Amino acid sequence: MTTTTIPEGFVMPDFGDRPAATAQPGTAVDGASAPAYSGPRKMAFICSKGNLDMAYPALIMGNAALGEGVEVHIFFTFWGLDIVNRKNNNNLKFTMLGNTAMHMPELARLGRGWEYKSMPQGMGGLPGMTSIGTKMMKKQLEEEDIPEIPEFLDMIHAAGVHMWVCKLSYDMMKIIAADLHPGVEGVISASDFIEIAEGAQIVFV
User: Fold this and answer.
1) Among 15, 84, 108, 112, which lies 20 to 30 A Cα-Cα from 204?
2) Which residues does residue 186 pair with via DSSP β-bridges, in sequence order?
3) What is the C-alpha to C-alpha distance for residues 199 and 36, in angstroms, rounded to an integer?
4) Contact predicate 199/44, CB 8 Å
């Protein structure tokens, strides 16, 4: 058993009573009216953004889950459709606007600690900054041997991921079936996906 030392002055919030965590799969825990889910492990990712830096998290986590034998479903909605739209997915952009966590490891050459300083938001609005930021991120991804989005989709589709597109977003954006990555299994409603994701760990990106 691992013991964690609580830092001096740290106050643990009171979240109230917690149900006992000793129940076996398929049995109810205290305070629960239905048995705990006991089927195969399943993860469902909801991709709602089409920026380059928001496209990769679900693909990387989904790929890792597949490697662990987990059943993986990815639901693309709103701007997340750009990830599986073959007209757009090889040209996704990265912008530092609205990203106050943006910093550059290369700035360590200017002095100690500079690599952790957030970039001024005003810089993101300068002409050409989106292209520079996108090129920089793609270079970093390439150095880590992470494939481009179309290749990544091919890879996880071949490995067994299930990909779904939101019908509402599909209709709103006037996308046609021929534009979608061939690994997309269907254009479905949010209610359909909720049914598919029953018992899954859901991750919203």
Assistant:
1) 15
2) 164
3) 9
4) no
What distance, in Å, lies between the first and last C-alpha atoms of the chain?
Answer: 34
* pLDDT 10s digits, 89-141: 888 887 766 666 666 666 667 777 766 676 666 666 667 677 777 788 788 88
> Among residues 122, 152, 147, which one has the least CA distance to residue 47?
152
Provide the edge-to-edge strand list for the sheet that holds 184-188. 184-188, 162-166, 71-76, 42-47, 201-204
3-class SS of residue 204: strand
Residue with tokens 């996704």: 92
> 145-180: string of b/e by CB count within 10 Å (b at 16+)?
ebeebeebbeebbeeebbbbbbbebbeeeebeeebb
Q: CA 203: distance to chain centroid?
A: 7
Contact 144, 164 (CB under 8 A): no
Instruction: Using alpha carbons, select from 60, 20, 31 the residue that is nearest to residue 152.
Output: 60
Q: Locate 30 and state its tokens.
A: 């205290």
User: pLDDT at residue 149 above 80?
Assistant: yes
Interatomic CA distance for residues 3 and 120, integer angstroms? 41
Question: How far, in Å, CA of 5 to CA of 2, rounded?
Answer: 10
Q: Which two tokens stand for residue 198?
A: 């029953």
